Structure formats: structure tokens, C-alpha cells
Amino acid sequence: MQEQHIVSSFDRDLESIQALIMKMGGLVEVAISDATRALEDRDEELAQQVRHRDKAIDALEDQVNSEAARVIALRSPTATDLRTVLTVMKLAGNLERVGDYAKNLGKRTSSLVQMPDIDGASGAIRRMGREVEHMLRDALDAFVQRDVAMAEDVRRRDQEVDQMYNALFREFLTFMMEDPRNITACMHLHFIAKNIERMGDHTTSIAEQVIYLVTGELPAEERTKGLMPSYSVDL
């Protein structure tokens, strides 16, 4: 009876932490969607809301880490159970970083609304953000369902995000060469596109952690990255 009591207490602890992860993931998905919509609609108020709401994401990461540390201290989990606790801590870290990138989008959007629009750029960035948002949703679903195939699919789709970034990078260079007055706006847009590409990397890391959680091993093959321009920047 005592062992059953301990096991069910541990399960309840894990369910509570995983619920926090899903809540955090939901906030991050909304942040990506709102940040890219604010850019497309040139909505400075919405961009500011994204920036302010990042505090809630940060607070959830702290709560996940605190709860996970408490579980380790009280329950001394081993094997699969320990792997689960460590995985949720890494997932929280990745989600927090994606939230930070969404906040950065909000900051740059507040600057961009004062500048002339670059034809088609905001819509293309929104499509890129929507793809990352879908990847994140699938990665979290893969976590809940312990679905390796779904996690592998998320991992594969990161290459498509890289290719979208590369295409945007070339477009921004063209705009800047055609008219130097576009340089400042295109530099902001380039950093926004790079932030979204990095969101894709962190989402892929979540998918890889799901694979590790289920199989006990990280993917053996290094994932294929879309070819990055040699003169691109790393953030």
C-alpha cells in the first residue's frame, strides 16, 4: 500500500509538471502568432502585448524547474521517471527561448511601424512564423502522446523553415541593393526572420527531447539543415 501511495503521488507530481509545460507551450504558440500578426498588420499595441506577456512564460519556466527539483529531491526518481523529469526541464528551457524570440519580434515591430513597408515581406514572415507555430504544436502533441514518428516529422520540417529563411534573406539583400533607403527596415526584417529560424531550432530540440524520452537515445543522425548563406548572422 505504501509503495502504491508513493507511486501515485509521483504520477500526480509528473502530471502537474506536464500540465505546466502544456500551459507554457500554449502561451508560446499565441506569442508567435500574435508577434507575426502584429508585424503584418503593423499593430504596435499588439506587439507591446507580446512583449509584456513574456513575463508569464518566464514565470512558468521558473515554476517548472522548481517543481521538477522538488520531485527529484522528494521522490528520487530513477531510469524512465528521472528521464521524464529532466526532459520537462529541457522543454521548459526551449519554450522560454522561443518566447524570448517572440518578444524580440515585438520590439522590432514597434520600430518597423515607423518605416515604409517592404513589399510582401511581412506576409512572408507571417507564413514562416505560422509554420514554426504548427511545428511547436506538433512537438508538444508528440510529447503528450509519446509519439516518436510525430517528433521525427517535426525534426524534418525544420529544413523547410531554414529554406524559407534563406529565401527571405536573398529578398532583403535585393531590396537593399535596389534602394539604400530600404536598408534599415530590411535589417530589422532580417533579424526577425533569423529569430523565427531560431524558434524552429528550439522547436526541433523539443522534438529531439521527445525522441530521447521515449527511446532513451537522442537521434543518431545529425538533422539536415537548410543551406545557410555564408554571410548570414547567428543570434
From TrEMBL:
Keywords: Cytoplasm, Phosphate transport, Transport. Transmembrane segments: none annotated. Plays a role in the regulation of phosphate uptake. Homodimer. Residues 21-108, 125-210 form the PhoU domain. The lineage of its organism: Bacteria, Pseudomonadati, Pseudomonadota, Alphaproteobacteria, Rhodobacterales. This is Phosphate-specific transport system accessory protein PhoU. Pfam families: PhoU. It is found in: Cytoplasm. The keyword Transferase does not apply. GO terms for cellular component: cytoplasm. Belongs to the PhoU family. The keyword Calcium does not apply. Gene3D superfamilies: Phosphate transport system protein phou homolog 2, domain 2. Its main location: cytoplasm. One of its GO terms (biological process) is phosphate ion transport.
